[in-house]
Write a structure and sequence with these properties.
The protein is α+β, with helices and mostly antiparallel strands. Helices cover 56% and strands 13% of the residues. Strand 2 and strand 3 form a beta hairpin. The radius of gyration is 15 Å and the shape is globular.
């Protein structure tokens, strides 16, 4: 699904953001482990390549669903990922959808 600027449907835009193979899974992992580092994410999703992890995180960052914090005194810096306030508002809705699907089977 590809939304356009002409569409006013917010659901379509959210679905576009999370439609990538790994994005929703990464979102759930970050939600459960706020402050998780890049390598920790990589270890929790062993099938993902580094490039796909970077691209997926970049999409979630650019859409402001997650934020990134860098720490350390010199390169390479340690990256930590967190949900944004926007995501914290969305999370209960996604959990409700998850619950609905689990009960409808």
């Amino acid at each position: 699904m590809q939304s356009t600027d002409k569409w006013l449907c917010g659901i379509t835009k959210i679905m576009d953001t999370f439609s990538g193979k790994w994005r929703l899974n990464l979102f759930w992992i970050i939600a459960k482990n706020e402050g998780i580092g890049f390598n920790q994410l990589r270890n929790q999703v062993p099938e993902i390549t580094n490039m796909m992890l970077v691209r997926s995180l970049d999409t979630l960052l650019s859409e402001r669903f997650i934020s990134k914090s860098l720490s350390g005194n010199k390169a390479p810096f340690h990256s930590e990922y967190y949900l944004t306030n926007k995501s914290k508002e969305l999370l209960p809705l996604l959990l409700k959808l998850n619950e609905w699907e689990n009960h409808s089977n």
